[in-house]
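Hi R.,

Here's the chain you asked about this morning:
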Amino acid sequence: MQRFLPLLTSFLLLTGAARAAAPETASVAAPDTARLTLAEAEQRFTQNNLSLLAQQYNVSAAEAQIVQARLWDNPTISIEQNTYNPATRKHFDVTKSGESIVQVQQLFAIAGRRKAAAKVAQQNALVEQYTFQDLLRNLGYQLRTTFYDLYFKQRTVAVYDKEIASFRHTVSLYQGQYDKGNIALKEVIRLKAFLFQLENERQALLTDIASEQADFHVLLRDNSGMYYQPATSLVALRNLTLSNYNEQQLVDTALVARADLKARQAALEQQNQNLRLQRALAAPDLAVGYVYDRAGSYIPNYNAVTLGVAIPILNRNQGNIRAAQAQIQGSKAQADQQQLVVQNDVHQAFQLAQQTDKLFQGSDRETGDFDRLITGIEQSYAKRNLTIVEFLDFYESYKNNLVQLNQLRANRVRAFEQLNFAVGRPLFKAE
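And here is the predicted structure, written out as tokens:
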């Protein structure tokens, strides 16, 4: 046993020094791993995401409806030809002695119906455009939060990799000493149980990473199976600050920038334009035409101009006008509701960002003391100055400190991203 203690102490010294010297970075990249910055991810996302492409087609379709609304009605032409002329005994007699009638008619919309229809179509296209921008805001938020979640979870996996590798050596060494009869079986079992716990926690984390990798691939429209390793700067993330803005400034910005609110406001204006259109539709269209009758009128080669208009006695489009008025009130309520949602979103996101940032700024973000401490703990345990319970408790605290530090960093960045999402503009970015 006396010969075992110096050997074990020397071994733990080496493993502790290696742990202290190892950088707190992600695991070594596999051959199918790709490092990706946020800017690169956003570029691929805007170019390839299928949801964005689908909404862009909706915008194009709505813009085409503007062109359609401005078009004139097509003229109509009708020809009447007698099938048999008894005087000449000819079928379909198109000579001067036969009867032919030609009529041309053009419908003119009065009361500004075409102009009103075009404005309704313009507002609909604007709604689709804002819907596209809001989709971009939502998916962009998902992309950025997934990016940073992956980044910090991969850093946490690196912590587990380092600890598990070190602890496996420790378990192996103690197993050898148990085989020689130098230590009790229960001590080896406790060490193996703790190693098993670390491996299970690591596997659960890898499962989360796999799920987020899948989400990331969908956002980027990538079916290559590549394992993405987000690349960013901890210093830049640490420098994120709320000091340049107050809550009211952010609320004012959101009321101008939020695409979902703009979509509601555009929908309200669309209903206003629809009311004008329905009132215009109450006015009848004017039909202007020309008639040529070769032999069927009181004189040969009869020419005439025709005018026609419906008399608005029974149908003055009353129901559609009343429906349009009700839709305006409904759209106004939705716009007011969305404005309230925007204000509350910014308030909650700002409060969360303040709380998380305060917690982060007040925490000890340096891990060097813990690295040195755990080395001393391992030496004390090897010298039997600590029980296995105390040793594992210190080891658990060491691991939890690093894991929770990464979780705090991730929560803080997510809070800033949520504030960007609530405001509708990326005001807080890691430059």
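One quick note: The radius of gyration is 38 Å.

Cheers,
M.
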